[in-house]
Amino acid sequence: MKTSNSPSFSGTATAVACSNIAFIKYWGNRDAALRLPANGSLSMNLDSLTTRTTVRFDPRLEADVLILNGESAAEEARRRVSDFLEIVRRMAGMPTKARVESENNFPMGAGIASSASAFAALSLAASAAAGLLLDEAALSRLARRGSGSACRSVPGGFVEWQAGQGDEDSYARSIAPPEHWPLTDCVAIISRAHKQTGSSAGHALADTSPLHPARLRQADENLRRCRQAILRRDFEALAAVTELDCHLMHAVMMTSSPPLLYWQPGTLAVMQAVRAWRKEGLPVLYTIDAGANVHVICERAAEQQVAQRLRQIPQVRDVLVAHPGGAARLESAGESSGYNVNSQT
Ligand code: DP6
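# DP6 complex -> structure
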């Protein structure tokens, strides 16, 4: 059997990973190159929003190739993937370039972030194809180098990314499995437009906001409150801390220079509706990433009612429904068959 140290190594592997939604957000880096975050964060994997990625190392290739949803990717995206594959090649001690084919199962251009599921799936597929047997922590650490939030899509269920001191201890682990709490994320699509400032560029602006230090001062306490609310399945407590941190992050974004203003009128319409519904007694909360769409999270029993009410808001173009999802998993691996990330922890 060829090993990854062989110059003609041609391993292949396919992996699937879920996207995730953060209750406590990652915003700002202490070290942008290593993607060491300014604060710890906590999220839930989303089972129906997934990326499936196949990596094939091919000694005949002169450059890495990236096919996204059946089409050749833009150079910027190809370069980001290629830079990431360089890390994997260094770890495996081999020079071989790769062909990467990646598909999202959620509508392209829905304005839903895909870097978390994309880099989690790529980390698993690329490392397995290269013959590296990484445990879950090492895989999460690797995914973090591609996209910070991707490290949280490696473990399953409800996941905490500890900020850590350096590369070694900055990775994510599960605090509860998907079945721990039957929540639903109804993603209210307000805009399908590509966001003007992506997260990577946004993180670099966090330090310019006078409110950033204030958010960071209470980050550990908010993380603790959020972890406790999830472990106790306390929806009211989860709503309070999730919306607080969402507002804090967007306050940092809005007060950066230049300012980042992601909300649209429809975003605010959904926020206000959700607050009114909660007053009526519905277990529902919202959170918003670097875009206009709103993640409306409720207890499973309220799912149909919440989705239906959201669809009646004129600015809501669509509602995508997701439940707590599992860990990144390998579907098949050529040279490394039999490898399962879950059995390595
Ligand atoms: C607002 O992980 O997308 O969604 O590391 O540059 O790829 P990069 O950033 P990314 O940032 C996520 C920002 C967020 C909050 C979160 O998911 O925690």
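# post-check
The radius of gyration is 20 Å.
Residues 219 and 276 are 27 Å apart (CA to CA).
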